[in-house]
Amino acid sequence: MKHAPFIAVEGPIGAGKTTLATMLAEEFQLPVIKEIVEENPYLDKFYQNMDDWSFQLEMFFLCNRYKQLEDTVNEYINKDKPVISDYHIYKNLIFGERTLKGTKRDKYREIYHVLTDDLPKPDIILYIRADLDTLMARIAKRGRPFEEEISPAYMQQLIEDYDDAMASLAVREPSTVIVTIDGNQIDFVENKEDFAAISAQLKELMK
Ligand SMILES: Nc1ncnc2c1ncn2[C@@H]1O[C@H](COP(=O)(O)OP(=O)(O)OP(=O)(O)O)[C@@H](O)[C@H]1O
Ligand SMILES: Nc1nc(=O)c2ncn([C@H]3C[C@H](O)[C@@H](CO)O3)c2[nH]1
């Protein structure tokens, strides 16, 4: 790779993005950028009433991620330093297109493009796919109180939206390498060999 890689880990809720990004950051001694969850004032309200709170929530995520990406560009990308993030800013659009309706969705889409179109995109995306049962079990096990409201229907839709979004990214950003990880079969937490295989693949891509 001609420049230091910008790596993002992606996948639906509970896929293991933060876990994998943290493990890889340790393995490769990379700085890790994690999305803000606990300080988010709207998540609780959103899961109780999506129609009422989706615009506030999506705008909050977008502004936070915009700021984090701006900082990432200044601190790492412009200095040719590698970095790994537990999300791609594109996830704003994956969620926003699903949770918003009508003119709010149109406005949000426009703001998303104005803010992000000229910003650097990851060179490598590690996309963790997993089925509904696996994700629901992990969300339950993690036990965030506000996520108790997440319905299987919302999650199933999100799984499909992620697959569509990754397929569309592959076409629109052909320079981005997307590595798909089967999160049902590959257990990078419990199985050292599985983690070693992911690390080896990433090492090759980073050369
Ligand atoms: N491969 C795995 N095997 C078993 N448990 C896992 C695995 N990956 C993640 N977990 C567990 O599942 C839960 C969700 O993982 P994590 O928080 O990394 O997901 P995430 O994709 O970052 O979630 P979110 O979308 O909410 O940010 C955690 O409790 C984590 O310990
Ligand atoms: N609606 C919506 N839009 C987003 O951009 C977004 N990003 C993350 N999340 C939810 C998933 C987890 O519950 C929790 C932590 O990832 O926040 C989002 N929800």
From TrEMBL:
InterPro entries for the chain: DCK/DGK, Deoxyribonucleoside_kinase, DNK_dom, P-loop_NTPase
Give every Deoxynucleoside kinase domain span.
7-206
User: What Enzyme Commission number does this protein have?
Assistant: 2.7.1.113
Key word Amino-acid biosynthesis present: no
Write down the superkingdom of origin: Bacteria
EC category: transferase
Q: Which UniProt keywords apply?
A: Kinase, Transferase
UniProt GO MF annotations:
deoxyguanosine kinase activity
Record carries keyword Aminoacyl-tRNA synthetase: no
Q: Which Pfam families is this protein grouped with?
A: dNK
The protein, known as: Deoxyguanosine kinase
Organism whose genome encodes this protein: Paenibacillus auburnensis
Q: Gene for this protein?
A: dgk
